[in-house]
């Protein structure tokens, strides 16, 4: 689950779960400006590298992205540029040297629609221990999925299409997705242990 893919394994039309955490589990984001800076660069580079952000969540000490590679350029180039830019910003702001991230980001290719659904739910459930209600967490694409905020960063259409009813109403798809996330089951804890073993 937590292995990195060589660039040759990134294919046009492929879906990828990208995740990483701060070195020694330290925080990657220390104030709101840090979160905004990361999201701003993500917004800028996704178009330059022709990727779509299907879902994301920025936690204080780790990040999760679900992305689609739309062109021939490996999606890894997008993540490398994003993290290089954020590292330069972070080190300059806090007068640090070295890498705030724990090594190279991890990648998991996502092959099935059903897994995309569950993975998006896992990503959106990440803040459940930080906030009383996950729609209130600002650094996630979940509020956009359920229509509580406008978001020009996350492409919610692909996954919400899986939740559309026969009448095809977006409102119904959002409601169904919200209910799907609420179900939770044990999926969150199971996949969390696979991605970041032994992390409390």
Automatic annotation (TrEMBL):
Q: What is this protein called?
A: Transposase IS200-family protein
Q: Which residues form the Transposase IS200-like domain?
A: 11-126
Tell me which SUPFAM superfamilies the record gives: Transposase IS200-like (SSF143422)
The record's listing under InterPro entries reads: Transposase_17, Transposase_17_sf
The protein's superkingdom reads Bacteria
Q: Which organism is it from?
A: Candidatus Curtissbacteria bacterium GW2011_GWA1_40_16
Q: Which GO terms describe its molecular function?
A: DNA binding; transposase activity
Any one biological process term the GO annotation gives: DNA transposition
């Amino acid at each position: 689950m937590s292995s990195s893919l060589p660039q040759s394994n990134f294919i046009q039309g492929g879906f990828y779960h990208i995740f990483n955490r701060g070195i020694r589990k330290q925080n990657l984001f220390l104030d709101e400006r840090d979160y905004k800076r990361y999201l701003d660069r993500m917004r800028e580079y996704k178009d330059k590298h022709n990727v779509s952000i299907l879902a994301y969540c920025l936690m204080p000490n780790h990040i999760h992205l679900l992305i689609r590679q739309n062109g021939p350029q490996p999606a890894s180039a997008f993540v490398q540029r994003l993290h290089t830019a954020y590292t330069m910003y972070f080190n300059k702001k806090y007068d640090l040297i070295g890498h705030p991230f724990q090594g190279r980001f991890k990648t998991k290719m996502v092959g099935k629609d059903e897994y995309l659904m569950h993975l998006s739910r896992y990503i959106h459930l990440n803040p459940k221990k930080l906030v009383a209600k996950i729609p209130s967490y600002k650094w996630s694409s979940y509020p956009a999925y359920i229509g509580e905020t406008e978001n020009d960063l996350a492409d919610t259409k692909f996954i919400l299409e899986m939740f559309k009813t026969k009448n095809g109403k977006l409102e119904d798809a959002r409601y169904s997705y919200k209910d799907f996330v609420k179900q939770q089951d044990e999926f969150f804890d199971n996949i969390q242990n696979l991605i970041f073993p032994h992390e409390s």
